[in-house]
Amino acid sequence: MTRVAVFGNGSWGTAFAMVLADAGCEVSLWGRNAARAEVVNATRSNPDYLPGVRLPDGITATADAAEAAAGVDFAVLCIPSQTLRENLSGWKDLLPADSVLVSLMKGVELGTAKRMSEVIAEVAKVPEERVAVLSGPNLSKEIAARHPAAAVVACRDEEAAVRFQAACHTPYFRPYTTTDVVGVELGGAVKNVIALAVGITNGMGMGDNTKASLITRGLAETTRLGLAMGADAHTFAGLAGMGDLVATCSSPLSRNNTFGTNLGRGMTLQEAVAATKQTAEGVKSCESVLDLARRHGVEMPITETVVSIVHEGKPPLVAVKELMSRSAKPER
Ligand SMILES: NC(=O)C1=CN([C@@H]2O[C@H](COP(=O)(O)OP(=O)(O)OC[C@H]3O[C@@H](n4cnc5c(N)ncnc54)[C@H](O)[C@@H]3O)[C@@H](O)[C@H]2O)C=CC1
Ligand SMILES: O=C(CO)COP(=O)(O)O
């Protein structure tokens, strides 16, 4: 039987542990809080993150990383991106030498501008063939309700991607494979920034034309960055690109979208942070995505606008006017 450890028992870590268990894996679900792990085992639920959802019997929760990691084929990492480096340095020596490390995270590291798979390879000192990424339109509550959805597993080693695809394939969760790790990770990280932008305009009372324009031009700037970094343009038309943008920018379940809506309605950054119980990766990653864009000489006007509103205190109305008054150009 395939053994998998999921590190991170928040909303996505728990929902994805359900997918793995439904696919027939033996799953250990690690969380830093021992009391929560006990509650999960005793009640077969995670009331803090997925209230009302019954967890399959194939999941065992633990706060002991060594216990979680013992003998696993795959170590799935699902904690806030900015905490990965520190956490993984404590886990790396516990993982079996032939295990594959899989990132479910959708962020870019502040300061280094590294993608999560790069942080994993660097910290765990593993070759990129042992690092995979899963991304796509996967709002955790809908996955936990077993509504049909698809995703992409990306790994430089296609055979490892196929093995993980089999490990998480269920009647309601359909994973595809690709070797375009860069494209899949950028799709996931940048869509959070675009969802903030959509949320902001939504909170300001703007409608669906604005949303569709931001999604489309957001995809254009994501693709520009991706091409500069060696990604495949097709990836951005796929599940990790357009697919995730549509889901996240349309759904009130999205934390990034909701965070933006709160800002657009007039909350300060501090008020919006206080109103957000879960991880909204775009709030920090908008700065690291902009950093990446500058390192690669790529223009990303929507990302720049989001940074100016979220971190530089620019009033949303002023920022939108500036974005719209940029010089006219051909569509590309
Ligand atoms: N929730 C969703 O629908 C989806 C989330 N993701 C991505 O998954 C990643 C995790 O997100 P969620 O599970 O939704 O977040 P969450 O906020 O629901 O849960 C985060 C988990 O990380 C833990 N955590 C927080 N700080 C920590 C630290 N310093 N050290 C160790 N653990 C810590 C929390 O206790 C919690 O268990 C993010 O990168 C997110 O973008 C990807 C797809 C879907
Ligand atoms: O990544 C997601 C859906 O694919 C979840 O989006 P949020 O992090 O904005 O909730």
- The global form is globular
End-to-end gap: 48 Å
Rounded average pLDDT: 98
Poorly predicted runs: none
Number of distinct beta strands: 8
Total of domains: 2
Largest sheet: 8 strands, mixed
Domain Glycerol-3-phosphate dehydrogenase NAD-dependent N-terminal: 4-160
Main location: cytoplasm
Active site: 191 (proton acceptor)
Pfam families: NAD_Gly3P_dh_C, NAD_Gly3P_dh_N
What would your notes on this structure say?
The protein is α/β, with parallel strands linked by helices and 332 residues long. It has two domains: 3-179, NAD(P)-binding Rossmann-like Domain (Rossmann fold); 182-324, N-(1-d-carboxylethyl)-l-norvaline Dehydrogenase, domain 2. The chain is built from 16 helices and eight strands. It has an eight-stranded mixed β-sheet, sandwiched between helices. Helix 8 runs antiparallel to helix 9 (208-228), helix 9 (208-228) runs antiparallel to helix 11 (239-250) and helix 15 packs antiparallel against helix 16. The protein starts with a strand and ends in an 8-residue tail after the last helix. The model has no long low-confidence stretch (mean pLDDT 98). Bound molecules: 1,4-dihydronicotinamide adenine dinucleotide and 1,3-dihydroxyacetonephosphate. The site of 1,3-dihydroxyacetonephosphate (13P) has 14 residues, from helix 8, helix 11 and helix 12.
